[in-house]
Amino acid sequence: MQSAVTNIYDFLDVWLDGELNLTGALRAAEWPEEHLLEFSRQWPDPDGDCLEAELRVLSPGEFRPIVPLTGGSIGSRAQTVLELLLYAPAVVVPSGDLHASWSRGRPMDGAARNDLRRQLEWLAVLRPFIESGAVEFVRGHEGDELASMFDGVGDERTNHRLRLIDDMTMSDWSEAGWNWPQEVSADEMFGLNRAVSLHLGASLVLAAEQKGQFTALDVVSEIAMRRAIGGRRVEDGRVSILRRLGDFDLPRLVEQPDLLRNLRSDDAFESWRAALQAGLAVVGEIPDTPEGRKEAGGVLADVLQSKLFAVKKATSTSAVMSAAVRGSKNFAIGGIGAAIGTAITQDPSGLVGAAASGAADVGWEYVDRLAKRRASYAVLDMTIAFTDSAR
């Protein structure tokens, strides 16, 4: 467990008398105001260089999606994290869930107390995953820091992150498949591009350090990822190529933490994750030859098809499980490769390749580092799209 995370759980164990659970969370939410204020003042700061420094570097083919590092609430993130943990061996989560955000500049009213209760309940749910190494944290970007980034303040590297998709227009997004609910102003368009770029850039920095894979949770982020890293010309003259390695429709389950936590240990889901990891390890070792590039596209389908059937069967064996299923999630794994000549991609949007000049932004830096480190392999790295299925 990362040391900053250990400090927070040790702190909570002391204050809650070892009851970091539903009962303890309810009791804490009823503490007197002075007690809550002191609790807030003593809450350890989870941020710092040690979070990233202690985040284990992945071996080739190892799979650890990066949950979006900007925006969102604990409630909205809980469903994403728990669902991803059903299908992925591990995830990287923003450290915002470790902050005493319930008390930041607020009176200790009913809303703050409810937020505290929800956060403590969530930290209780996360604890066994953290202790097993399935959940690790990185510093997020939020509050005043995020506001300053939107204003263009910050170092040049930060500004490079934000410029990844500054030129995307409403028409570009629409042509790529995004349906707008209404007309969007230029300022709103700029804000959307910057928000998506911030998560994308922060994730690519981590991915370049082999600490996780970029994860798109919606079509906007998926399009932005393809635009940022597809068709990039690197220093050795090759161009980045995006391939689809696997595309699976998996059961989407409603937010029931106990159910999802117990389901993760079900044989069907454990077998799925083991097969996924084994398949990706094979993909990661395939040499960069015409035969190898062709082989990479079929490995996951071969090893996961029977596991997919078992997962679907496991979620339909009882009335309780069937009632928890709400449609399906599309779980798509992309492979980044490189080749001499013009970029070839399965991206239907027509947007990939717009940045093939190799401008020195985070997307280019990421692809260039991959191309140097894994020059002899067919797949340089992987990306994940985990989105509500339209099928």
Number of helices: 17
Sheet with the most strands: spatial strand order: 1-4-7-6-5
Q: Which percent range fits the helix content?
A: 40-55%
Mean pLDDT: 81
Distance between the termini: 39 Å
Set down the secondary structure blueprint.
Layout: H1 3-15, H2 22-28, H3 33-42, H4 49-53, E1 65-66, H5 74-87, E2 91-94, H6 110-132, E3 135-138, H7 143-150, H8 156-162, H9 170-175, H10 186-208, E4 213-216, H11 219-229, E5 238-253, H12 257-264, H13 267-284, H14 290-296, H15 299-314, H16 319-324, E6 325-340, H17 362-373, E7 381-388
Parallel strand pairs: 1-4, 2-3, 4-7
Antiparallel strand pairs: 5-6, 6-7
Helix pairs in contact: 2-6, 5-12, 8-10, 10-17, 13-15
Any overview of this molecule?
The chain is 50% helix and 14% strand. The protein is built from 17 helices and seven strands. Strands 1-4-7-6-5 form a five-stranded mixed beta sheet, sandwiched between helices. A two-stranded parallel ribbon has the order 2-3. Strand 2, helix 6 (110-132) and strand 3 form a beta-alpha-beta unit. Helix 10 runs parallel beside helix 17 (362-373). The model is unreliable at 142-153 and 342-359 (pLDDT under 50).
